[in-house]
Amino acid sequence: MSKHPDSRRRFLKQLSCALCAGSASSLFPQLNLIGNALAQTTVPGYKALVCIYLAGGNDAWNLLIPYDQTRYDVYKDARSGEYNATSNPSGLAIPRSSLAATQISDASGSYALHPSTVDRTGPSQPGLRSLYNQGKLALISNIGTLIRPITKAEYANTANRPPQLYSHSDQENLWHIARTSNSVQGWGGLVADQVRTGNLNQLLSPCISIGGGNRFEVGELTFPYQMSSSGVTNNSGTGTTGASFQRATALQQMLDATYTSPYQSEYRDILQRSRDLYTLLNSGLATGGIAAADTFATNFPDESLSNQLKMVARMIKLSRATNFNIQHSRQIYYVRLGGFDLHDGLMSTGNSGHAALLTRVSQALGAFWLALGEMGAQSEVTTFTMSEFARTLSTNGNGSDHAWGAVNMVLGGAVQGGQLYGTFPDQHLDGPVSLSRGQFIPSTSVDQMAATLARWMGITNSADLNTIFPNLPNFPTNDLGFMA
User: How many domains, the chain?
Assistant: First the structure.
């Protein structure tokens, strides 16, 4: 049997160490081009998760709406009637006549998505509804934070439900850690701890955030590498001429020095690794690089979420290429869109209303899907949403308030899409699974959704899953079935 693959891997590992030590550039001025001679152009078996966090509590029950007349009437009554700026400005129901273009079907019945989920400019720019009908988008109904399955009768006992149930910060934290006890680690980081061993360049974290600091990507061994939607940023004031050159020289002297204090040494090492990663990533993201800003023909809308997802697409292209010195086989990304805490102006037609927010989500995911298609990575990347909670079905006069069970989305070529997972709830106020204002008791837990994604990433051992998700044994399954 040929030893070529092992020899090549050892060579690239040694090269990675040399680069990150800053000693290889003079020997290999075209270091990132050497892989052109290799037969494999992308890392085999690559997989990535992309978390889209919808901050503030997405009004999920205006994302997924029952369309058959009987259930629609229940929805309409629970939402205080159909919204009309003149005759019913406090209503939160979307008129059924506006839903014809976004009808979808499932074995459990007829539904519609929010009108904002239509295609952006036709089939060439798909929205959420088209992605669902193509079998690429799955919806998880009535999902939320849980300790174990509970009934409405058991809700009265606070020990049966997650702590601080309607608090933004607490519920976001529970979604990020997928457990109801205190933890400094998130489930994305703990998954990355176990699957990162196949990544060639270990200096670059497998967890990359374009959406700022987050608990979700923190593991025991893994900490997220943070970037902006415009790329990586160099140390300011350190250039090649004048005073900036003098500062750069002084900084390098401090980095080259030997320190007796372990704190000083660690700080120096972290700063040096950061500078090395900047040099590496900037070479691939800059004009002319493998993942330059114009690398995709897809037209991304110029707004926050789309710009973040475009950077994710660029980093995926960079990371899975065998002619660049990253070559990760497993990655987890985090992006974020705020504005969903709509106690006021939920039905506004302006840029801050729920319709505008869902338009941004729909168009950004459609563009991201097309960009993944350009590089042949649609089946290698799974994108999913999280949010603290849904919102009350009943109005507060101009919006809605904090609730519990919600709807989340999962998109990808490996997703068994075009259907609902979980149970769509009876939407009567104070009904069998809802409280007085339409706060649903979840039928599916975040642990189950997260474990299904972790299994796809390669963690299939039940003991490992139960370590990451301590409450998982309380639920009937650790695999919801939405991943192929």
Answer: 1
